[in-house]
Prior knowledge:
76% of the residues lie in helices and 0% in strands.
Amino acid sequence: MISKQRYWLFIPAVLALLIFFILDLMLGSIDIPFGDFLALLNGSHENTIYREILLNYRLPKAITAVIAGASLSLSGLLMQTLFRNPLADPYILGVSSGAGLGVAITLMAASFLPAVLISTGWGTVLAAVIGASAILLLVILVSFRLHNNVSLLIVGIMFGTIASSIVSILQNFANPDAIKLYVLWTFGSLSAVNWANLQVLAPVFLIGSTVAFCLHKKSDGLLLGENYARGLGIDIQTTRILMVLSTGLLAGSVTAFTGPIAFVGVAIPHIARGLFKTSAHKILMPASFLLGGILILICDIISQIPEYTLPINTISALFGAPVIIWIILKRT
């Protein structure tokens, strides 16, 4: 269990989240001075350009960054616990591949979709949701037949492989413009999420994260092995389905609105374990929530530094990949 002196780490974590949230609102291609930022908050600033940038562009983007970081970190922690694999991530069951397949089909068949879906961007979002949900449903159905987590892991990877293969076939016959749009989607972006999107993303995030937090005791039991967990009265089958469902809701919804964001779900749970020196999920879950939000906010701030905005996926990989290398070296 966590030692008492480690609880204080939540205070700097919350403060860091707030600081980077504010910096993400202030910094960008057009920097907003701190004085003007405070004036905008109390409504005394008359600059309509700053107000438009802050309220309708940067604020939903910053909220999305926190939701994305928290969602991927929580779902990554669940998958590492379920499969007892330190390199498991939110996309290990093929959710990202399913979302990618839905987006690929949409972009390759854009001429057959209603123009309103394409013009508003909802076509891509709906396609990603349908694709991710289809893979998630298949995994849940298969989980009723499988009683071994390793088998479920392999089946999930195979579903993802099938989806990725279909995407490759579609790319082979697609025109260059459609391929370019799909590749841009795979880079990941927070900028496309607006207030209308958040009205969908936020409730799904709340449901998925609530399910995850409710599983903290059962997750602790699974760490000790399935036989021991059964001895504690834990329903392994139900717990597995709820973990998969929570991961699908969290990772699937984020992927649908922002595109795939790599390495966050793998790296953050390990950083949380290292900082808080515990394996108790009642600590790791809120810690991963905060650290995931901080990381994506930092990545978003860094991506805004150049003249042209960098893909969020490339920045998160620069943070996450070294952590994965460290994990592998530590275990050899």
